[in-house]
């Protein structure tokens, strides 16, 4: 039983450990959930139209702006209304209180007669409708008269009367937190307190400060009504601006959407035309390469026909002339020699044409071997030297490019031999960033300006025009640099 319990305990431990493996559910932190919520919210916002997004942002910004404007205007209006009511009440109370405090300029205290007169004044029904409490302060902060008799002749902090002692009318709405305001707080009615300076009539000197508390029911109602009017105006202006902005942005959004649809259609059309042009270009490239191959086969056939036809016939003519020379007279011997020389020259030219038209087998040659081969054949045929400088060239290239390169170098070397007498013949080639650069140079006198110009028939020299057409037919670039120091014929291909 002990073994069974131990095994059971081990299984529970193993299962518990497996439950804690990374394969179990990984708790998501609060920051991760908030990030997911923000991501989903941003995705939902991006799906909305531009006009809706703009109105949302404008409503937020304009709403906050108008809120602060409304709060500022309401606060200013409330302050102005309270201050105006306070000044009016202060002037009203000064007219009642100043005659009773004149004696304070001498005795610094109110006589019992003045206190009784003030009590009777406070008992009047007309005054009680507005004023609920009165205090008269000495400049040292002592209350010399109060409706609440419990604080008479008590001294309190002077923060409240300090401004009034400077000649200002001070008011505060519902600020009854001071110790001397316990009587007014117990009334449980909205009040605002007013501090007004009381002056000596003869000199205008401030001899006391009168404080009275006026009911704020009507004032609060007026402030509330003004606030409502302000917020109605601000809200109406905000809604009007938002509506106007919405329709303006919505109109612009519709124009943008129409333009996007038009641009999308144009883009689709351009893509279709691009695909069509790519197809045509591929077909043209294939046709060009096939034409180059067929042209090369035709040249080989012509070369073979020249070798097997006219060359053999000229050889037979020379053999027959040798047979006839044995039986000719001395006069005819000279004629026979002339005919033999002409036939020999014709045979040599036919054989040179045949060798020029028939290319060697370059299918299995690399580009470097091919360029070395064409330079070697040119050296053998002309007895001149060709300098070959080759960089890192691709090992293989399509056959049409190989044929074009062979013909390009062969023709430019022939031109260099013909026009520059083979001076400074050089072949250079390099391959970089997918571009094959090849140049054939000589150090001859250079080409004249009119040699590269198009004549009146719209054609350049046949050899140069053939080279240019051959290079450009495979998508290459052809150029000639000629000066008094020599000529360089350049070609560039994308492999």
UniProtKB/TrEMBL annotation:
<dbReference type="InterPro" id="IPR011712">
    <property type="entry name" value="Sig_transdc_His_kin_sub3_dim/P"/>
</dbReference>
<keyword id="KW-0808">Transferase</keyword>
<dbReference type="GO" id="GO:0016301">
    <property type="term" value="F:kinase activity"/>
</dbReference>
<dbReference type="InterPro" id="IPR036890">
    <property type="entry name" value="HATPase_C_sf"/>
</dbReference>
<dbReference type="InterPro" id="IPR003594">
    <property type="entry name" value="HATPase_dom"/>
</dbReference>
<keyword id="KW-0418">Kinase</keyword>
<keyword id="KW-0472">Membrane</keyword>
<feature type="domain" description="Histidine kinase/HSP90-like ATPase">
    <location>
        <begin position="405"/>
        <end position="493"/>
    </location>
</feature>
<dbReference type="InterPro" id="IPR050482">
    <property type="entry name" value="Sensor_HK_TwoCompSys"/>
</dbReference>
<feature type="region of interest" description="Disordered">
    <location>
        <begin position="1"/>
        <end position="33"/>
    </location>
</feature>
<feature type="transmembrane region" description="Helical">
    <location>
        <begin position="54"/>
        <end position="73"/>
    </location>
</feature>
<dbReference type="Pfam" id="PF02518">
    <property type="entry name" value="HATPase_c"/>
</dbReference>
<keyword id="KW-0812">Transmembrane</keyword>
<dbReference type="Pfam" id="PF07730">
    <property type="entry name" value="HisKA_3"/>
</dbReference>
<keyword id="KW-0902">Two-component regulatory system</keyword>
<feature type="transmembrane region" description="Helical">
    <location>
        <begin position="230"/>
        <end position="249"/>
    </location>
</feature>
<feature type="domain" description="Signal transduction histidine kinase subgroup 3 dimerisation and phosphoacceptor">
    <location>
        <begin position="300"/>
        <end position="358"/>
    </location>
</feature>
<protein>
    <submittedName>
        <fullName>Sensor histidine kinase</fullName>
    </submittedName>
</protein>
<keyword id="KW-1133">Transmembrane helix</keyword>
């Amino acid at each position: 039983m002990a073994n069974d319990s131990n095994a059971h305990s081990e299984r529970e431990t193993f299962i518990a450990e497996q439950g804690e493996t990374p394969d179990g559910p990984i708790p998501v932190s609060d920051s991760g959930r908030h990030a997911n919520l923000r991501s989903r919210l941003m995705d939902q916002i991006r799906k909305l139209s531009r006009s809706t997004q703009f109105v949302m942002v404008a409503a937020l910004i304009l709403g906050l702006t108008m809120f602060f404007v409304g709060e500022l205007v309401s606060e200013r209006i409330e302050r102005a209304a309270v201050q105006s009511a306070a000044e009016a009440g202060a002037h009203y109370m000064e007219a009642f209180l100043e005659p009773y405090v004149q004696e304070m300029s001498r005795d610094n205290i109110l006589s019992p007669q003045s206190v009784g007169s003030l009590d009777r004044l406070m008992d009047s029904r007309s005054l009680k409708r507005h004023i609920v409490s009165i205090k008269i302060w000495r400049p040292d902060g002592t209350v010399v008269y109060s409706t609440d008799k419990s604080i008479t002749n008590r001294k309190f902090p002077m923060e409240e009367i300090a401004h009034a002692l400077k000649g200002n009318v001070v008011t505060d709405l519902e600020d009854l937190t001071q110790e001397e305001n316990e009587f007014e707080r117990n009334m449980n009615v909205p009040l605002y307190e007013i501090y007004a300076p009381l002056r000596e009539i003869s000199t205008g000197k401030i001899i006391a400060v009168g404080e009275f508390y006026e009911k704020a029911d009507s004032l609060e109602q007026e402030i509330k009504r003004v606030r409502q009017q302000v917020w109605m105006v601000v809200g109406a202006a905000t809604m009007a601006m938002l509506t106007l902005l919405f329709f303006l942005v919505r109109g612009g959004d519709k124009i943008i959407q129409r333009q996007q649809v038009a641009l999308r259609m144009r883009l689709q059309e351009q893509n279709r035309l691009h695909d069509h042009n790519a197809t045509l270009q591929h077909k043209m490239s294939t046709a060009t390469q096939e034409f180059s191959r067929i042209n090369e086969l035709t040249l080989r056939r012509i070369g073979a026909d020249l070798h097997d036809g006219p060359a053999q016939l000229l050889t037979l003519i020379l053999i027959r002339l040798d047979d006839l020379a044995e039986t000719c007279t001395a006069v005819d011997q000279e004629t026979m020699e002339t005919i033999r020389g002409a036939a020999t020259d014709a045979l040599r030219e036919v054989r040179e044409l045949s060798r020029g038209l028939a290319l060697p087998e370059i299918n299995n040659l690399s580009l470097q071997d091919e360029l070395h081969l064409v330079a070697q054949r040119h050296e053998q045929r002309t007895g001149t030297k060709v300098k070959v400088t080759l960089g890192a060239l691709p090992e293989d290239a399509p056959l049409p490019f190989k044929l074009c390169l062979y013909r390009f170098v062969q023709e430019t070397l022939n031109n260099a031999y013909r026009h520059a007498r083979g001076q400074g013949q050089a072949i250079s080639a390099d391959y970089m960033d997918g571009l094959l650069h090849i140049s054939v140079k000589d150090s001859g006198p250079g080409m004249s300006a009119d040699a590269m110009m198009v004549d009146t028939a719209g054609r350049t020299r046949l050899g140069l025009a053939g080279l240019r057409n051959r290079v450009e037919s495979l998508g290459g670039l052809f150029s000639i640099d000629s000066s008094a120091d020599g000529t360089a014929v350049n070609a560039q291909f994308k492999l």
